[in-house]
Amino acid sequence: MELRRPFLRWLVMSICALALFSVMFFAWTALQDRESTLAIRPAAQNISVPDGFSIWHHLDANGIRFKSITPDNDTILIKFDSSAQSAAAKAVLDRTLPHGYIIAAQDDDASQTSAWLTRLRNSTHRFG
Predict the structure, then answer these.
(1) Cβ neighbourhood burial of 38 (10 Å; 0-12, 13-18, 19+)
(2) φ, ψ for residue 80 (rounded to 5)?
(3) Most buried residue, 14, 36, 113, 126, by CB count within 10 Å?
(4) Contact 23/88 with Cβ under 8 angstroms?
(5) Does the pTM exceed 0.70?
């Protein structure tokens, strides 16, 4: 009987350590600032998509760094290293581009963990 107690204590401690590590890992991945993408679309069909050079010029003039500017059908996709850069770029482009464009963030890089944490934060909890 005494041989089983140290083994059970070791097993329980190992399971607790593994659970703590898992929770910390998922929290770290959820809170990590990830790559962000802005999409620029014309609001009406008779408006053409702005060229990448003019977008590059506006962002560069305001000191905003980006990873890439890519045309995709009737959309321009701009990738950033962080959501903070994306938000700053959206503010600049809202101010500098002529009216008639929709500038919105895309959620294609959102992980499953981030989506679950958002659901948990936004939902009401009832206990009892």
Answers:
(1) buried
(2) -125, 160
(3) 36
(4) no
(5) no
71 token code pair? 């045309």
Grouping H, G, I as helix, E, B as strand and the rest as coil, residue 89 is helix
Cross-strand bridge partners of residue 37? 79, 106
Type of residue found at 88: A
Query: For residues 80 and 17, is the Cβ–Cβ distance under 8 A?
Result: no
Q: What is the pLDDT of residue 83?
A: 83
Residue 127, burial from CB neighbour count under 10 angstroms (0-12, 13-18, 19+): exposed
Q: Which two tokens stand for residue 52?
A: 């990448």
pLDDT(125) > 80: no
Other Cβ atoms less than 10 A from the Cβ of 99: the count is 7
